[in-house]
Specification:
The structure holds 2 protein chains of 2 kinds. Chain A contains 4 helices and 12 strands, in the order H-H-H-E-E-E-E-E-E-E-E-E-E-E-E-H. Chain A is α+β, with helices and mostly antiparallel strands. In chain A, the strands form 2 sheets. Chain A has a 6-stranded antiparallel β-barrel. In chain A, strand 1 and strand 2 form a beta hairpin. The longest helix of chain A is centred in the first third of the chain and has 36 residues. By secondary structure, chain B is mainly alpha-helical. In chain B, helix 2 packs across helix 5. Chain B has 6 helices and 2 strands. Chain B has a two-stranded antiparallel sheet with strand order 1-2. The chains are: A alpha+beta, B mainly alpha. The interface between A and B is large, with 42 and 43 residues.
Chain lengths: 308, 174
């Protein structure tokens, strides 16, 4: 194409390229909030999307019910077997509940990290190109959703809110490669082991829980829940089950592979957990808190070595 | 009537895409496959081939910006790739035969190229770390198959609709 190299067009092309690179790098920065035009577009598309999502969700609902209908017989068998245990467990649970109430009255502490206000939301879209594992919900800041809140289904934690506009919110799922995405978690058991859910293993398709104290014993099959110590998530939201325990890269702490409890393939209704206890900025937010602390650690170690 | 049908089909496909994305990823025998619906760009490629390249590039720019802002928060990615793909499609068509089978093949190949560029981009900015072979197996191949199926089912309808519009415009002019 010879006319392509006319000066005017070439300059236009170059300016365009520069503008493009600037635009991409601007949007790749860690932004705390969407700009106004972005918010307007997001809300408009979000409203249209939620209209389309209604029949779509209905259809997936029908498919799901057909699917569960086909499994009824098997499920019934299993449930019958567990029904006998259920009565005993329920009795114990009510007993424990009343105990807890008594103790709370004794210690005068009514506020618990476990308590949260649920905001029910419908999934209106899933990022179609699926490079980032994102879903978009039909509730936004006007409904009380804030950044970094926990998002879960009845089965367990699925992700956290990464950005909000007045009428939509974007959720990044636990299956993510982002290095600054972490959730403060806890292994349930006699001795509670705390750690952080950081990243996932693509081959095993499981989450990785890191920074667990190596003196504590954790076993395969134990349940992992959110600890509430990250500052934003409520306590005791189920995350998954441990499938394998090993030591981490440096051999200082333990890490565990966690099979998520929630089903990520078809998400249609989710709950956003608004914690009742005071919210602080901690591990659950995307701030690179522990990168700096890591640096400090290495610095102090170096210092020690030098001193020796 | 037909005049407004063309953009409204594009809007509909834009809104339907993420609903189909909810079915993905699928798991077959322990293997995870990602199906990426690319209905909108397939439709735009058809517009570019059968109707007007310039119009397709305009639509591509508009929906590219919407895509960028609403889904991926990186402005300038789809808003360049969509018009670019439409432009290439419109340019190719001048040298080849406009049979439905040929255009379907070209569209699918262009979508594969789009996917590949996106993979390279996201690899570059560290959004993904999957190796190339894994990308080909778990993403590109299933995506190509799914989109080829979609085009086989609805390609003739796109062509029919766009031809109706072309005829209408020819009548208006004469």
């Amino acid at each position: 194409m010879p006319h392509f190299f006319f000066n005017k067009k070439l300059i236009l092309l170059l300016v365009g390229m520069v503008f493009l690179v600037a635009l991409i790098s601007f949007s790749l920065r860690e932004r705390t909030n969407a700009t106004l035009p972005e918010q307007i577009i997001k809300d408009t598309v979000g409203v249209a999307q939620s209209i389309v999502a209604k029949p779509a969700n209905y259809i997936t609902g029908v498919f799901n019910s057909i699917d569960s209908l086909l499994n009824t017989y098997e499920e019934n068998k299993r449930l019958k077997a567990r029904l006998d245990e259920f009565a005993a467990v329920q009795a114990e649970a009510s007993d424990l509940k009343s105990d807890i109430k008594k103790f709370q009255e004794l210690t005068d502490k009514s506020e618990s990290l476990k308590a949260y206000d649920p905001i029910h939301a419908t999934v209106i879209a899933r990022n179609p190109d699926q490079w980032e594992q994102k879903i978009i919900l039909d509730k936004g800041s006007s409904h009380g959703v804030e950044k970094n809140m926990a998002v879960m289904t009845a089965k367990g934690l699925v992700g956290k809110v990464v950005s909000v506009t007045p009428f939509t919110s974007e959720v990044e799922l636990l299956y993510t490669d982002k290095s600054n995405y972490r959730v403060s978690a806890m292994v349930q058991g006699d001795n509670q082991a705390y750690g952080l859910i950081e990243g996932y293993d693509k081959e095993r398709n499981e989450l990785i829980m890191k920074r667990i104290d190596s003196s504590l014993t954790i076993k395969k099959g134990q349940q992992v829940v959110s600890s509430g110590l990250g500052g934003i998530f409520p306590k005791n939201v189920p995350i998954g089950e441990i499938t394998e325990v090993s030591t981490d890269d440096f051999g200082l702490t333990k890490m565990a592979y966690v099979k998520p409890a929630a089903d990520f393939s078809i998400l249609d209704y989710v709950v956003i957990a608004k914690r009742s206890a005071t919210v602080i900025d901690g591990f659950d937010s995307n701030k690179s808190v522990d990168n700096t602390s890591n640096k400090d650690l290495t610095h102090s170690q170096k210092g020690k070595e030098e001193a020796e | 009537m037909v005049r407004f049908l063309i953009p409204s089909v594009a809007v509909l496909l834009f809104l339907v895409e993420p609903e189909f994305a909810m079915f993905s990823p699928i798991e077959v025998k322990g293997q995870i496959f990602y199906l990426v619906p690319r209905f909108l760009i397939l439709y735009l490629i058809f517009i570019s081939i059968y109707y007007s390249r310039q119009r397709a590039v305009m639509y591509g720019l508009f929906f590219g910006v919407l895509y960028d802002v609403f889904y991926i928060d990186i402005i300038g990615l789809y808003s360049v790739l969509f018009p670019l793909i439409c432009f290439i499609a419109g340019s190719i068509v001048k040298v080849i035969h406009q049979h439905l089978v040929v255009t379907t093949t070209i569209s699918v190949v262009l979508v594969a190229i789009l996917e590949f560029i996106l993979y390279q981009f996201f690899y570059l900015i560290d959004f993904t770390t999957i190796p190339l072979s894994e990308f080909l197996r778990s993403r590109l191949l299933p995506t190509i198959i799914a989109n080829a199926l979609f085009l086989m089912i609805l390609g003739w309808a796109f062509k029919y609709l766009i031809n109706a519009r072309v005829l209408q415009r020819a009548r208006e002019v004469s």
